[in-house]
């Protein structure tokens, strides 16, 4: 009887979470899958059309352009942000004066809301009197039309993404502090250089942290939305910074093609799932866990 009563109390305690999970996550997911097979404009009842939305998507040039833009952005931003965040974490893990101040300064950009950050960088990237071009001009380096040249629009968002990587840096810093000093000292006694200790000791020991950050960075890169939407409210030049999530949003709330947008959402979920599983599969061979798992 006591066991049943304890189980009942446990279910009662988890009931609010279960209700919230069902209402705000499970139901929207199931509804989105259903609407992806419907012609649904929000203003009218959904009408079943089968795979028509998916067939139209695969023939939609804008869909393919948005997908390419998103994948290119992910391939540019993910490696660069990973390297920069890890390098900063290594530097901030050293014994230097004012260590806590430096850590706070590098972490602070990640605390700024997305819209103010986009507005700030809009001024910095201004082709005529932006600070970045002023600095390039003062060093006699050719200036760049960051906002109007399709060749540089993605790079502008990559720079902004790397600048705001304080959360990733902090996670790497926590991982570095968990590396056993005994291993580092033993490798140093064996004559290993600093670079060799980092490659053969530090990196394997923090490989689970690297995998976690790469997976989270991949998901975030594929869902990039707010920054380019604020930087180019009327559209980027030649749709060079028009990403998957932006096209999904436009279909849902501008064109009232909610069923079409739901189909895009399902495909995005499948794309993220496949890429994440691929990373985890690679991690099975490359990632070292201290417990030997």
Per CATH, the class reads Mainly Alpha
How much of the sequence lies in strands comes to under 5%
Order of helices and strands: HEEHHHHHHHHHHHHH
Number of separate domains: 1
Low-confidence stretches: none
Brief overview, please?
The chain is built from 14 helices and 2 strands. The chain is mainly alpha-helical and 293 residues long.
Question: Can you tag this structure with a few keywords?
Answer:
two-stranded antiparallel sheet, MetI-like fold, 293 residues, mainly alpha
Could you give the topology of this structure?
Blueprint: H1 2-35, E1 38-39, E2 47-48, H2 52-58, H3 61-92, H4 99-107, H5 114-124, H6 131-138, H7 153-163, H8 166-177, H9 181-189, H10 194-205, H11 207-222, H12 226-231, H13 244-253, H14 258-286
Antiparallel strand pairs: 1-2
Helix pairs in contact: 1-14, 3-7, 3-8, 3-11, 3-13, 9-10, 11-14, 13-14
């Amino acid at each position: 009887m006591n066991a049943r009563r304890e189980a009942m109390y446990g279910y009662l305690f988890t009931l609010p979470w279960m209700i919230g999970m069902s209402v705000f996550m499970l139901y929207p997911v199931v509804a989105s899958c259903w609407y992806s097979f419907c012609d649904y404009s929000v203003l009218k009842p959904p009408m079943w059309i089968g795979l028509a939305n998916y067939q139209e998507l695969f023939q939609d040039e804008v869909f393919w352009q948005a997908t390419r833009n998103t994948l290119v952005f992910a391939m540019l931003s993910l490696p660069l942000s990973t390297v920069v965040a890890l390098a900063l974490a290594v530097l901030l893990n050293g014994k230097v004066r004012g260590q806590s101040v430096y850590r706070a300064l590098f972490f602070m950009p990640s605390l700024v809301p997305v819209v103010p950050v986009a507005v700030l960088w809009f001024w910095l990237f201004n082709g005529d009197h932006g600070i970045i071009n002023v600095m390039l001009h003062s060093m006699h380096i050719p200036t760049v039309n960051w906002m109007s040249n399709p060749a540089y629009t993605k790079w502008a968002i990559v720079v902004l993404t790397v600048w705001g990587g304080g959360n990733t840096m902090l996670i790497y810093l926590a991982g570095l502090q968990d590396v056993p000093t005994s291993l580092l000292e033993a490798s140093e006694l064996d004559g290993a250089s600093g670079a060799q200790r980092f490659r053969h000791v530090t990196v394997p020991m923090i490989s689970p942290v690297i995998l976690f950050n790469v997976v989270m960075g991949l998901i975030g890169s594929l869902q990039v939305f707010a920054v380019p939407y604020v930087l180019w409210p009327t559209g980027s030049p030649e749709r060079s910074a028009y990403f998957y999530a932006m096209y999904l949003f436009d279909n849902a709330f501008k064109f009232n093609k909610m069923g079409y947008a739901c189909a895009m959402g399902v495909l995005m979920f499948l794309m993220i799932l496949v890429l994440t599983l691929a990373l985890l599969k690679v991690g099975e061979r490359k990632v070292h866990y201290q417990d030997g798992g």
